[in-house]
Design a protein that fits this description.
single chain; 51% helix; elongated; Rossmann fold; 254 residues; alpha/beta
């Protein structure tokens, strides 16, 4: 089985590693707008780098590119797939629609690893719009790596990302912007955890976080909520606190 990974960054290399564990999969091919990036991924995983102008057919095409260009990447390389196509871009509505448009007869799935490759294992929501033996094998391979793969819908996923990514990142970054450096001996468990989260969020790639903020709504809600808290008098603050206390306890993550 021949496999092509579109996008040879960290996530593309991770996908290539997963595909390389499938039965009957030879060396995985990589294509990237940066030729050397594709070549480096190929060297690391024993595959090959191909030209961005390739017209060769592949049993499976896996798209691992930034959110803003995922639609274009699927349009460009999706037609090369003969059996299956998938993406791991982080958004689902557009890829699912585009895969159905350019590869209607292929198995199709949109996965979103909710972690950086170095932090695997973790949760992976998937929208499987047209399953078959290849997509099933990919899901099995991800599960064998101790990931929790679960079915969802594109709407459910993209709506959830407004909270778990856009709102979360905005809140943590706002804390980082507003906070002042203090001695560790003054930290409470909560402030210590927020400081740790701020360091974690700001250690990533700014482009990735910008893509998320541009794609998903939610940041303005955090700003509005912070303004409401800042302007509340004592009685209003207590009412807000009590309301939130009840709401959060009912939706505590399992």
């Amino acid at each position: 089985m021949k496999a092509l990974v579109v996008g040879a960054g960290a996530m593309g290399r991770w996908v290539g590693e997963v595909l390389g564990t499938l039965d009957d999969t030879p060396a995985v091919s990589f294509v990237d707008t940066e030729r050397e990036t594709a070549a480096e991924a190929a060297r690391m995983l024993g595959g090959e780098a191909v030209s961005t102008e390739t017209t060769e057919s592949y049993d499976i095409v896996a798209v691992a590119v930034p959110i803003p260009v995922v639609g274009d990447a699927i349009a460009a390389y999706g037609p090369l797939a003969t059996e299956a196509i998938l993406d791991v871009s982080g958004v689902m509505a557009e890829p699912v629609t585009q895969m159905g448009r350019v590869a209607p007869d292929c198995e199709q799935a949109s996965y979103h690893p909710l972690f950086a490759p170095e932090n695997e294992p973790g949760n992976i929501p998937v929208v499987s719009t047209n399953t078959g033996p290849i997509i099933d094998a990919v899901t099995d391979a991800l599960t064998r790596r101790n990931n929790h793969v679960f079915e969802t819908t594109a709407d459910q996923h993209d709506s959830a990302m407004e909270t778990v990514q856009a709102r979360t990142h905005a809140a943590v970054l706002a804390f980082a912007m507003a906070s002042q450096e203090v001695s560790p001996v003054f930290h409470t468990p909560i402030s210590s955890e927020l400081t740790r989260l701020a360091k974690q969020v700001t250690s990533g790639e700014s482009r990735v976080y910008a893509d998320i903020q541009e794609t998903f709504d939610g940041a303005t809600d955090v700003a509005a909520a912070a303004e409401q808290i800042a302007q509340a008098d004592r009685e209003q603050f207590q009412e807000l606190y009590d309301e939130l206390s009840g709401r959060v306890s009912e939706t505590k993550p399992q």
